[in-house]
Amino acid sequence: MATQSLRISTKYNGIFGYFAMIRRDVKSALERDPAARSSLEILLLYPGLHAVWIHRITHWLWIHNAKLPARWFSQLARGLTGIEIHPGATIGSGLFIDHGMGVVVGETAEIGNDVTLYHGVTLGGTNLSRGKRHPTIGDRVTIGAGAKVLGNIYIGADSRVGANAVVVKSVPDNSVVVGVPGQVVKRSQPHLATDAPDLNHTSLPDIIGVTLKELMQRVDDLENQIEGHSAAEPHHIHTPVKNESWEGIDFAI
Q1: pTM confidence score
Q2: What's the fold here for domain 14-186?
Q3: Distance (Å) of CA 93 to CA 29, 49, 145, 199
Q4: Rounded to an integer, what distance in angstroms lies between the CA atom of residue 161 and that of residue 146?
Q5: 163 exposure class (CB count in 10 Å sphere: 0-12, 13-18, 19+)
Q6: What is the pLDDT of residues 154-164, one digit of tens each?
Q7: Residue 135: exposed, middle, or buried by beta-carbon count in 10 A (0-12, 13-18, 19+)?
């Protein structure tokens, strides 16, 4: 799949537009974090939003060719929040970084509207090119804790990247990505722009486990058809039953 570019507005129409973006961000946090109790709490105590607000200033400096001050302020934000967002990155409205510690967003990353990032997420590059080398994240995407999205790839709108997934290839809209390297699972029921945010980044289909279980069940069925086969054969691994526990061999754990 070819990478895509988002139409992201970084113009705030002066100071009033900037504060309108802040109000949108606070609303996003109230919608997506059940621990949030008030707008004042969010304004004062949410480092994920503080990092985004500082980034909007540093990005303005960056695109107006004040690159050294932009980098200086971005590093200051990194020290204060534990979140590193390069001032060259382009970010839409409604981005919510929950917890946030360890989040890294590279220089040419593009993030759409109403995206949610959890702690430990990396939007990183994979080569030494000075051109586009970081991911593009579509609208309403959720990226789970510890996930790594690497390279000039596109994560389609309304997708969910599972916790600790490593994504190195583009992902279609309305997909779920799990595993290392990331495996794409198309949603059985598409997530719509009007739906509530999809924040269940721990709902991870075990693609390899299910496939392995089905293959082993087929092997068991075939062996049972062979004349003289003994189900009590020692050290034979059988598929999990009842309590979904593996039996029949010492896995040395």
Answers
A1: 0.77
A2: UDP N-Acetylglucosamine Acyltransferase; domain 1 (2.160.10)
A3: 12, 11, 21, 18
A4: 10
A5: middle
A6: 999 999 999 99
A7: buried
